[in-house]
Amino acid sequence: MRSTIHLVSADDCLILRPLMQPVLDAELSRYRDLTGVDVDAVLAFARRLVDERPRSAGELRAALTERFPKHDPGDLAYACRNLLAFVQVPPRGVWGRTSQVTSTTAESWLGRQLAENPSLDEVVLRYFGAFGPASVADITTWSRLTGLREVVERLRPRLRTFRNERGRELFDLPDAPRPDPETPAPPRFLPEYDNALLSHADRSRFVSDEQRRALSRVEGRIHGTVLSDGFVFGVWQQREGTLVVSHASRAAKRVLDTVAAEGRRLLRVFAAGAGAPDVRLERID
Question: Which of 19, 61, 100, 118 is the least crowded, having the fewest Cβ atoms under 10 Å away?
Answer without folding.
Answer: 100
